[in-house]
Amino acid sequence: FSEGVLQGKRVVITAGPTREAIDPVRYVSNHSSGKMGYALAIAARNAGASVELISGPVALPVPEGVKYTPVSSAVDMLEAAESSVDQQCDIFIAAAAVADYRPEQVPEQKIKKSQDKMVIELIKNPDIVASIAARKDKPFTVGFAAETQSVIAYAEGKLQKKNLDMIIANDVSDQRIGFNSEDNAVTVLWQGGRESFSLQSKSLLAGNIIDLITSRANYSKN
Ligand code: C5P
Question: In which domain, by residue range, is 82 found?
């Protein structure tokens, strides 16, 4: 179904978790599997796009026919995203579960056990999708909102605040569609419209989302 509609378009996708170093042997991260972002990369490639997948560490095979850029931290991911968008980017999809904070001080040596209690101070990470959306040459920019309550209201807020063209909202309090599952159900919001997709495989959903992006970005051939 979306064959060829993205021919000649360059699509950049972030996926997976980020890892934020505590010291040379430890990190903080999250349970993102990367499945939704990888499925979107495959769907965009199948639609004829030239795709770059900027990915945090996941256990998924690298999709064929996609430029693959592995990264670790949020700061690395931002740098990779900015330089990829510098080359050319028509559609930017932020599917990564970027760590909101990182340890402020990262010692060069392993932290030794001593006190019974310890504190790690964290500082806020840069917002990758918001910095891409703030560019003068802004691509069609798509974000995700994983929420546990007031899903639509929070997603709407992020659409405006981050200056996105589209946001994909999902209710992660629902066990069937959580972080690691094979399936997902989402509501996609844009300025003045929305469309809901019932529970389906992430790969089917990815194709539907690519079709919707294609029509919202006015790339449809029909
Ligand atoms: O604010 P929140 O983390 O819920 O926003 C989610 C959206 O923003 C996702 O598309 C995510 O990839 C993106 N994001 C980002 N950089 C961050 C935090 C979130 O690109 N530091």
Answer: 10-105+119-216
